[in-house]
Amino acid sequence: MIAVSAAVLLFSGFLMYQAMNYAQAGNLLQGGVYGLAGAVGIALSVNSLTNMRRRMVYLQHVAAKVLSQVLCASCGFKVVRTFSTGDYVTKEVGQCQQCKGSMRVDLIYAEDIKPKKD
Q1: For residue 44, what are the CA distances in angstroms to 4, 29, 31, 97, 107?
Q2: In a 3-state reduction of DSSP, which class is residue 72?
Q3: Calpha distance 44→11 (Å, rounded)
Q4: What are 15-20's contacts with CB under 8 Å, separation 24+?
Q5: In this structure, are residues 46 and 82 in contact, taking their beta carbons and an 8 Å threshold?
Q6: Kind and range of the H or E element at 45?
Q7: How far is CA 25 from CA 20, 29, 30, 49, in A?
Q8: Which one, of 53, 42, 106, lies nearest residue 77 by Cα?
Q9: Cα-flanking dihedrals φ and ψ of residue 114, to 5°?
Q10: What is the mean pLDDT of residues 96-101?
């Protein structure tokens, strides 16, 4: 979408350049048509680019936080940590801090982050 908007912006700039050439040559009607088309194209492409940027910023604020719950099989000690690539349920991730037993990923879940009100 960004490439399409950029292409429309470039083409609209070309149309504005052609509008100036027609106006300088004395063909005001043709220059006006090219100028209007160029102005509409520039407005649409700038609007599209700003909406895409705004949507990307919003999606970053709304993104869910993925967490892994790690549980000791021996004593039941539980740790909640940020999800790491490669985590899966029953994966052994090390020794327990309390009893030196085996720690395994018990649960993987997403925590919704509320969007900030600006």
Answers
A1: 11, 23, 20, 59, 47
A2: strand
A3: 12
A4: 15/41, 16/42
A5: no
A6: helix 28-62
A7: 9, 11, 10, 34
A8: 106
A9: -70, 135
A10: 88
- Geometric angle at alpha carbon 67, from 62 and 71, rounded to 5°: 165
pLDDT of residue 7: 92
Question: Can you read off the two tokens belonging to residue 52?
Answer: 């895409």
Find out whether 97 and 90 touch, Cβ atoms under 8 Å.
no
What amino acid occupies position 72?
C
Residue that has been written with the tokens 């490669």 in this structure: 86
In the chain, the percentage of residues whose pLDDT exceeds 90 is 58
Reported as a single tens digit per residue, the pLDDT across 28-76 is 999 999 999 999 999 999 999 999 988 888 877 767 788 999 999 888 8
In the sheet with 102-111, reading across from the earlier edge strand, the strands are 78-82, 65-72, 102-111, 92-95
Q: Point out which residues pair with 110 in neighbouring strands.
A: 66
